[in-house]
Protein 1
Amino acid sequence: MVRKAVLPVAGLGTRFLPATKAVPKEMMPLVDRPAIQYIVEECARAGLDDVLLVTSTGKSAIEDHFDRRVDLEAALAEKGKDEELAAVRDLAELAQVHSVRQGEPLGLGHAVLMAAGHVTADESFAVLLGDDIVDPDEPFLERMIEAHERTGRPVVALMEVPHDQVHLYGVADVEPGEADGEFRIRRLVEKPSADEAPSNLIIVGRYVLPGTIFDVLRDTPPGRGDEIQLTDALQTLAADEPIVGIRLDAERYDTGDKLGFVKATVQLAAARDDIGPDFLTWLRGWLAEQQG
Ligand code: UTP
């Protein structure tokens, strides 16, 4: 049974400077919750109650966010702000949140390897990237865990992109798998040209991996950007026996990118019960004004 999640949050967030100079990009709020909270909530919904943050210097606000804050709780209780109190207190109970430092940003594969002291080699675990937010109504991670438990193979999330964008991503060479939207992957190609791309299915930030990946990562030399790449370790496993890809058909937001972040804010705000209706009324009016 998969119970643990590893959340690499040690990256520098250079695409979002200067905002990320003093504030981790994972703490940038989407409406009223930092991006990382959506990810930990996704873990909790999928039954992953043990979360390991792989952090770095300057990221301690993330740890604080999932800790108790008794002075704030007492002030809210005294003022009778019950709803706010529940929101603050529930947060600390979403999951057992642990952290480990990466030390140097030597790549996503290296960040995942930092979990080797927390996850044993015979345990499977999920990896969720803080930049990728998946529609909260979609039980996608549950589907990935189910596929891993059924097949025993590493499972990666795939997403279709237009052919002219494949050169930006890791692309999977796929064969049909056991279910609709499920694929067998023998080969992963990093940033191919449109002509060389084996498909238009790219790898996005969700993985369910066996603990045996740690040994493979230890033997994986630095690759693109001189970083230890998780994709390279997955390629080693796929060459032995196909790994599994599951296509994400739901909405996914790349919040590490400025435009993706703004789109996510708009869509998540529109979907909210509290501010959604007013926000949409305002947005429609504003758009009509711009067009008129
Ligand atoms: P990104 O490629 O988005 O890098 O990493 P980044 O540094 O966070 O952001 P930019 O590109 O400079 O704007 C993908 C994920 O892998 C983590 C990041 O925190 C992010 O969640 N990561 C990457 C690490 O934890 N350690 C690393 O060494 C590299």
Protein 2
Amino acid sequence: MSAPSRLAAETAGEERLVVGLGARAYDIVIGEGLIADAGRHVRHLLQLPKVAIVTDANVAARYLDQVRAALDRAGIASEAITLPPGEATKDFAHFEDLAERILALGIERSSTLIALGGGVIGDMTGFAAATLLRGIAFIQVPTTLLAQVDSAVGGKTGINTRHGKNLVGAFHQPRLVLADVAALDTLPRRELLAGYAEVVKYGLINDPGGFAWLETNGAAAIAGDRALRRHAVKTSCAAKAAIVAADEREAGDRALLNLGHTFGHAIEAETGFGAALLHGEAVAVGIALAFDFSARLGLCSPEDAARVRRHFAAIGLPAELAHLHKLGRKPGWTAAKLMTHMSHDKKVAGGKLTFILARGIGQAFICRDVAAAELGRFLEERLDAPR
Ligand code: NAD
Ligand code: GLY
């Protein structure tokens, strides 16, 4: 990441990154006030001057009128579909309802959907766009930090099932990502923190300077400094765009973006995909566990693992599996149950678990042969750690 002294120059105007995917390349526009100017940004991408906006009730209350007015000024007609907020919406039942409601609008192959909201809305709208009429266009207007730095970019779409997270889905790239950093002003602090876990992830994967920048500036970014937030969104999007352009379908290095997610998804599955533990919170615990496990295997220094945990704790994110006791975790939680969830995760190949481990901060790597017994012992130990 660049030095904070360069930030002043970055605050004026909007910035544009490109996800370089050849014929399917698209822009990520980062700025402030983009939602109120959405019509100008999307108009040239539409085949028909009408769109269907998918959003959730929280986001609709704050931004839907603004978006529709902006589209209207640009001569674009819009219909809106509002879903209930939260991870529980990302299931088959709500997806069926969403699909039927979109079809009821009489969409055509040349229609475009707009996802206005966080990762839940982005993933569901993207999956609807991937599947309805065998594929239509969609645009991401992410309104959470998590969605701006991660889920809106890269084309992974889908829903959760009883067997685990994101197990039904498709790769389907958006035509544009419009990240209005000003929208983060209305995001509850807990949601900001959850998204911040994904920002930290990029530093830990391959950008030790970026992690150090977050140690210095992360708290101020969370507290509301827009220039710092914008810098964090831009560097995160640049990191993700580079990885996606090199490995769109996760045949190789894109798997690094799953740092902390194998542990995290298992924890989320066990907590029932509810508000008790947000996705980003589970990722924070998962990232800390990945570093602790790496240290236990002698791959990374205990100091680096402790530094990761210290940063999450300083920011206010959970970093210990034992934190789940505070959520009133179910009495029956065991390492074996977590490992069962992990075995359903998509990161299983030939019966072996693929984990993203680390040789240090900024040195994540893909490990395809993690020993189940060692992992089980590690998880038991962590579940029993003092509360
Ligand atoms: P979310 O979509 O549930 O949004 C979090 C909450 O914030 C919701 O209650 C929402 O209504 C509210 N909200 C959104 N924007 C707001 C705003 N500006 N002001 C006030 N409230 C606002 O959750 P999320 O954290 O954005 O996304 C999590 C989801 O993203 C998970 O399902 C996860 O699996 C998925 N994800 C997908 C990818 C991918 O590559 N597709 C990557 C990471 C995460
Ligand atoms: N969030 C992981 C990925 O997009 O690959």
